[in-house]
Amino acid sequence: MTGNRLSDWTLFGTIAGALLACFFYAIEQGFEINLYTFLVNIDFLPLPDYIIYSYLIQFISHLVITVILIAVIDILSARFNHPIGISVIINTIMSFTFFPLYQIAVTKPFHPPFILPFTLWFIGHLLFAVLIGYFVSILHKKKERY
Fold first, then answer.
1. How far apart are the two ends of the chain, measured CA to CA in Å?
2. pLDDT tens across 4-63, in order?
């Protein structure tokens, strides 16, 4: 993996992560279901409050996870050649982190019942998975040209 691949992962991961954040932010603003707040929440980490409650650091940590995720999917799909399928499987599994993350969160952005928040969380992550899979397929086509 060259530095060029890292910049591709960073570019596509940032775009995908920002779009997922925008999707959840729109839900939060329109329906008062705090999915964006939940997405970027890091208050369970053993860090000083000025870091944990910094909106910039919260958002950047979300983007870092997204870049790592797109890199993993790119590497796996280079071997198995199914970027969208691999992305959907990984993001489906990751969607279920909703429940343990809620349990360890200090600030609870919503309260039971979780049917609607989890359903929207799951839908958002499936859309995110398809987008990441599409981006990875672009990366594979780009790699084939060289």
1. 13
2. 899 999 999 999 999 999 999 999 999 999 999 999 999 999 999 999 999 999 999 999
CA-to-CA distance for 69 and 103, rounded, in angstroms?
23
What are the pLDDT digits (tens) for 109-120?
Answer: 999 999 999 999
Q: Residue 142: is its pLDDT beyond 90? A: no
Helix (H) or strand (E) holding 104: helix 98-104
| Residue whose C-alpha is closest to residue 16's, from 96, 130, 93 | 130
Q: Which of 39, 42, 43, 44 is nearest to 16 (CA)?
A: 39
Q: What is the largest CA-CA distance in the chain?
A: 51
Distance CA 67, CA 33 (A): 26
Residue 10 structure tokens: 């960073």
* CB distance 38 to 102 below 8 Å: yes
What the block records as the tokens of 116 is: 């609607």
Give, as one character, the DSSP assignment of residue 76: H
> Cα separation of 12 and 77, whole Å?
16
Q: How far, in Å, CA of 73 to CA of 83, rounded?
A: 7
